[in-house]
Every structure is written in structure tokens, then in C-alpha cells.
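Human: I would love a firmer grasp of how sequence relates to backbone shape in proteins. Take your time, and here it is.
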Amino acid sequence: MNLPPLFWAFFRIGILGFGGGPAMIPLVHAEVVSRHRWLNDEEFADVLAIGNTLPGPIATKLPGYVGYRVGGVSGCVTALVAIILPMVVAMIAMLGIFSHYRDVAWIRGMGQAVVPVVMVMMAQLTWDFFIKSRASLGWLASVIMAMLAGGLIYWLGVHPGWVIGAILITALLRPSREKPIKGSA
């Protein structure tokens, strides 16, 4: 089995892959296709396409598949540990530093300054979702669904996953409103 090269290939990606999963895709391609030739370009494109249709981060799906292909279950585990390990170590180190210096005024200010930025980002995301919903469902249906979902989540304490699941099931069971094309039977 090629477990050490597999580990080091994905460990390098984990260290250098700033910006999340999509930013790691070129690094994965360079290691998997160009350097080690575990996959060819066509196979990589297929794996990437399938990986993008599945839930979860692409940064773990690609290494998991490539690792499994190269070394079976142990290869899958090796690749996943290698890609995740740098992030976990960095998070632990940063949280350790943050908790040690949390009483320093400028560190506390950084933590407080993040809250409004995240609030604006969430507001922008909410507005974008509302615009998309309004375009597909209409203004009234979008407002009613938002109010209903908000009421269920905030006032009745229903978990958001249940609300999203119910909306997805309703959308799947809803009859299609598409009009048949004239001249087709």
C-alpha cells in the first residue's frame, strides 16, 4: 500500500489549502493527477462532479475517495486524517493563544468586532435567499414561508433541521406547475 505518500500528499494540501475546500481543489489535482498519477484528468473530473453533488465539504470527500482508491479503507482513513490534522492543530493552537490572551484589550476588541461583521454577512445571505425565493415562489409565498419557519424555530423551539426537512418533503410532494408544450402528447 502507498499509505506514506498518500499521507504526505494530503498533509501538504491541508497545510497549504487556505480558503476552504474549493481553494484546495487545484492542490488536490496537482498531487493526485500530476504528481502521483493516482487518477487521470477524466477520473478526477468525474470524482469532483460526484463529490459536488453529495452533501458535506469537498475538502474531505476528495481525499476520502482518492485514499480509498489507493489504499482501501486504511487509505481513506489516512487521507482524511492527513487533510484534517493541520486544521485541527492550527485551531487548537489558535484557541490556546486566544484563551491565554483573552483579557488583553485588543484581543477582546477583535472578538467583539467580529460580531457585527458576521451579522452583516448573515443579513446579506438572508437577503440573497429572499430574492431567490421571491423569484421562484413569489413575494407573498416567500414572506409567509419565512414567517412560518421563524415562528416554528424561534417561538415553538422546533429544530431548524426539521423545518428544512418538512419544506423539502413538501416541495417534493407538490404537483408540478409546468404547462405541457403545445403539440406534444
Observations:
- The mean pLDDT is 86.
- Helices lie at 3-16, 21-35, 41-53, 58-100, 105-137, 139-155, 160-173.
- The two ends are 57 Å apart (CA to CA).
- The CA atoms of residues 34 and 40 lie 8 Å apart.
